[in-house]
Design a protein that fits this description.
The complex is a heterodimer of chains A (242) and B (286). Chain A is of the alpha/beta class and 242 residues long. Helices cover 36% and strands 28% of the residues of chain A. Chain A has 2 domains: 165 residues, 3-Layer(aba) Sandwich (Rossmann fold); 60 residues, no CATH class. In chain A, strand 9 and strand 10 form a beta hairpin. Chain A is globular. In chain B, helix 10 crosses helix 11. Classes of the chains: A alpha/beta (242), B mainly alpha (286). Bound molecules: adenosine-5'-diphosphate and magnesium ion.
Chain lengths: 242, 286
């Protein structure tokens, strides 16, 4: 579904990710791990079209989408749950969902909202509450729900469990697992290596913008050097002239 | 009875302030720009309303026409004055805006002459009497007009797709854009509606005083800026309340300390006092 080939991205002259190879298939989860500042968010935001690509290609559904606008990518079926959630905090839960389905112009949004509420019943109880007044867990559910409103085939999730209570994390992972079973391709960024390894099929580890490990989750679970790489990281920056 | 009359006078001015200040706070919310030239559009509304009424003899016809023209000009101001400098630091837009405002005042002077213009037949001057309180038709028109216009705006913002898209864009333009909302259209709409409302505010004041003059935007521009700070920058509800509060404080102030300070001095004294106690405004956004 998604394939990154020699993928590099960054901010102006600043290179955040260099020469990344990564693949996410339908009905599977690829976990992208790494310490703070490793370039995970940059990768996610670049796939979604918000960060400048420096090289390589982003193949999605067989075509290179590197030139498309963020909006065109959402319309093509790439859903984003960004770091920090970035909900429309003064809008209600329902309004956030409406905006999430905005690109599906002409289609009735009500059935899609119903489906999201079936996945996250708690949102149904808060439908007319402002998103900014929700608890952290409810906000994360809403961020996922909003992304689902565009009926994506690929879901990009940045920091699913960060700052959430264990029970809520379970609920979110339950939903993710469910989506995977239904055939969605999911790229998951996690701080909690253990959590990610429980659900992932493939694992890629970044260190300072470089890929230092890649393999199946089963291999990762038995591979201590991978864990070491993950924990022994120090944030550093790879700078390059343009 | 005096208190009731003062309260009513205060609310009338408050409504007028609200008509100007809402557009200003909307622009701030969307672009983080202090749109000083907004008061120029307010004055233009006064001029167009008066000239069109004098030409056609119908206020009912000239009001929407003038509002529409001012709204369109607001869009032009965005396109020519702000859009090219959006990626510069905010003070660049502020300076551009002040420059534009001064230029507009001078243009009014050149085009319409340095002295004030008046209505040939001042409309809405009939008097009404409600259990001891005397009101002019124009007083009623201002209150009814502002409440229904601002009320409809609030309803549209809450209940239409476009309204939801607008508020989403204010919250997070980048995310809103990625979901397929045209951020540019939202900006144009924002300038159209805000400017049209300010234009109507200008017509209201021209009716109250039967006068338009090149500098009529001056005092309202400072007042509206202070009001939106008081209301919590970008907060529309807070701005409406702050407008009404200021109108009422002014009305009572002119009676009780009017011998020492004039209306505008009272208003600014009050604003300074409040901002000393609550520099983030009365209703700062969370
Ligand atoms: N908006 C930005 N502008 C410039 N540099 C950025 C920006 N966002 C992130 N970076 C830099 O890019 C690198 C990768 O950051 P990020 O992708 O956020 O890492 P992670 O999500 O793995 O913690 C870091 O060195 C960070 O300082
Ligand atoms: Mg990150």
């Amino acid at each position: 579904m998604l394939r990154l080939d020699g993928f590099s991205c960054g901010y102006g002259p600043m290179r955040a990710v260099d020469q990344l190879q990564l693949q996410v298939s339908s009905g599977s989860i690829t976990a992208l791990l790494g310490a703070n500042g490793a370039g995970k968010s940059s990768t996610i935001m670049c796939i979604a079209g918000h960060v400048e690509i420096h090289g390589g290609s982003i193949f999605y559904d067989g075509a290179d989408i590197a030139g498309l606008s963020p909006m065109a990518r959402v319309a093509a079926g790439i859903g984003l749950v960004p770091e920090g959630r970035r909900l429309f905090s003064s809008l209600t839960v329902r309004e956030n969902l409406v905006v999430g389905g905005y690109c599906r112009l002409g289609e009735a949004t009500a059935p899609t909202i119903e489906r999201v509420l079936a996945t996250f019943p708690r949102l149904g109880e808060r439908l007319h509450q402002r998103a900014g007044s929700l608890s952290g867990g409810e906000q994360q559910m809403l961020a996922i729900g909003r992304a689902l409103m565009s009926q994506p085939k690929l879901l990009l999730i940045d920091e699913l469990s960060l700052g959430l209570m264990p029970k809520i994390i379970d609920a979110c992972y339950g939903a993710i697992d469910d989506l995977k079973t239904k055939g969605m391709a999911i790229l998951l960024v996690e701080q909690s290596t253990q959590r990610a390894l429980e659900v992932a099929d493939m694992v890629t580890v970044l260190e300072s913008g470089r890929q230092v490990w890649t393999g199946t989750a089963r291999q990762a679970r038995h591979s201590t050097d991978m864990i070491d790489a993950c924990l022994g990281l120090k944030p550093k920056v790879i700078e390059r002239g343009k | 009875m005096l208190y009731v009359e003062l309260l009513i006078q205060g609310l009338i001015y408050g409504c007028m302030y609200a008509m100007i200040a809402v557009g200003l706070t909307l622009v701030y919310g969307l672009l983080r720009i202090l749109h000083v030239a907004h008061a120029g559009l307010f004055a233009l509304g006064g001029y167009l309303g008066l000239l069109l009424t004098n030409a056609t003899g119908s206020l009912l016809l000239s009001m929407p026409l003038a509002a529409g023209l001012v709204g369109l000009l607001g869009m032009v101001v965005y396109r020519l004055c702000y859009q090219p400098i959006l990626d510069r630091p905010p003070y660049v837009a502020l300076i551009a805006s002040i420059g534009l405002f001064i230029a507009m005042e001078e243009l009014f002077r050149l085009i319409f002459g340095p002295y004030g213009l008046t209505y040939t037949h001042a409309p809405l001057q009939q008097l009404f009497r409600f259990s001891g309180v005397t009101l002019r038709a124009v007083d009623l028109a201002i209150v009814v007009g502002s409440v229904s216009l601002l009320g409809s705006l609030a309803w549209l913002a809450k209940n239409t797709r476009t309204g939801i898209a607008w508020r989403a864009t204010v919250d997070d333009p980048q995310m809103a854009g990625s979901f397929g909302i045209s951020v540019l259209k939202v900006r144009y709409l924002n300038f159209f509606i805000g400017s049209a409302l300010a234009g109507i505010g200008g017509i209201f004041i021209s009716l109250l005083s039967n006068l338009v003059e090149p500098t009529m935007g001056g005092v309202p521009s400072y007042k509206a800026l202070a009001i939106i700070v008081l209301g919590g920058l970008g907060n529309v509800g807070g701005t409406l309340i702050a407008s009404l509060v200021l109108g009422v404080v002014e009305a009572f102030g002119t009676i009780f300390i009017g011998d020492y300070l004039d209306r505008d001095a009272i208003a600014f004294g009050f604003l300074i006092l409040v901002l000393m106690i609550r520099p983030q405004g009365l209703f700062a956004r969370s």
